[in-house]
Amino acid sequence: MFIYRLYQGTEVPVIPCTSRVPSDDVRNAEICCQYANGKPISDIARAFGVSVQRIHQIIRKLSPITAKPRLPMTERNRVIRERFKAGEAVSLIAATFHLTERRVYQIVNETTHK
């Protein structure tokens, strides 16, 4: 009740009170734009000082249409296996598909033994 009386009649600001903090709408739009242009999520998170998980949340919420289409897992794994067999560096394959090198090796071993 005290807070209500203290701020009674005070309007809530629509925009941030300082110019140093960009509005979330502007930031989120820029995040979606960078993602749609192919920038890796980890780089976007680092640039905006937020977690990778937060970037995923923003992208899912705001840009389901502009999100990069993903290959079905079986198709993705087939492509990874082909690139590995062709001699492409595991680090490059991992970076391309946003995976760890360990996961690339797991996929190659899983698909090879089946």
Task: Tell me what you see in this structure.
The chain has two domains: 22-69, Arc Repressor Mutant, subunit A (Orthogonal Bundle), CATH 1.10.10; 73-113. Helix content is 63%, strand content 0%. The protein has seven helices and no strands. It has helices at residues 2-7, 24-36, 41-48, 52-62, 73-85, 90-97, 101-113. The protein starts with a helix and ends with a helix. The relative contact order is 0.08.
Class of the largest domain, according to the CATH hierarchy? Answer: Mainly Alpha
Q: Helix share of residues?
A: 55-70%
Query: What is the count of DSSP helices, taking H or I runs of 4+ residues?
Result: 7
Instruction: Provide the gyration radius in Å.
Output: 21 Å
Which second-level CATH architecture of the largest domain applies? Orthogonal Bundle
Distance between the termini: 67 Å
Q: Which fold name is given in CATH as the topology of the largest domain?
A: Arc Repressor Mutant, subunit A
Largest sheet: none
Which key terms come to mind for this protein?
114 residues, Arc Repressor Mutant, subunit A, 63% helix
